[in-house]
Amino acid sequence: MAEKRKLEFFLLRYVPDAVKGEFVNFGLMALGEGPDGVELIDVRFTRDWSRVLCLDPQADLDVLSGLQKEIQQEIGRKKDELTLLKKMEDSFSGLVQLSPVLPALTARTAVEEIEDAARIFLETPKLSRRREPTGRRKILETMRDEFEKAGVLGLLDAVRAEPYTKPGDPFEFDFGYRFGSEIKLFHAVSMRASVDSAVMLAARYPKIVPVMAQITETTPLLTAVVEAELDRTRSKIGFALEMMEESGIRVSTTGEMAGIAEMARRELRA
Fold this sequence. Notes:
The protein has helices at about 50-55, 60-70, 85-90, 110-120, 135-150, 195-215, 235-245, 255-270; strands at about 5-15, 25-35, 35-45, 95-100, 100-105, 155-160, 170-180, 180-190, 220-225, 250-255. By secondary structure, it is of the alpha+beta class. Strands 1, 2, 3, 4 and 5 form a 5-stranded antiparallel beta sheet that branches. A 5-stranded mixed beta sheet has the order 6-7-8-9-10, sandwiched between helices. β9, α7 (about 235-245) and β10 (about 250-255) form a beta-alpha-beta unit. α6 runs parallel beside α7. The radius of gyration is 33 Å and the shape is elongated.
């Protein structure tokens, strides 16, 4: 069994407001047994100063990071010779403070223990910022995924409404392709939070269809893709679905997207 080694850690803390007492750890000093007693064996500083700047946007990072070189010159000195410790606290007027000693008894190497301590006290956890898509974005991603699986995503285009309405109209159908005498359009419509987008699409589409048909000499066919888990017993949802269908819009769910994408594959690859 490996013999355990005693280590001592001190954290360097940045304390911009002594009254509040809030601080951020930015450095770590490790002391261990040397030939002549306890001595400084290593020092580590943070590589991410964002937490310091979050606490004090005016923090002088050049001065703080420069401390590392000064402390490194103390490596190998005995604990009672580390006058730099008190000097730091005095010269920075309390902005830099030392934590109470953090003892550790370990059978691992000093380097392994120091690496772990630095990771725990100095590093900012890298949390995934990716959020699960919701609403229309979730529907749109499902549509895109299914078209991509079918190998036709690159053959589809967003179809702008502007040529068939008025200049400056920002609306566009999410996906579209021409097949024979038809233009097949697909648009993501979320109704879980609100039915407004569905009602608006139902109101606008009948005005777009005849102009698009005349200009392109085709028959436009629009499919609105909605959530699969809609509560169709709710009066607002029922009203919006019925309004879209009355406007000549076919309504499908995300659960039907695989079949829609396969149909597009057959038509576009024919």
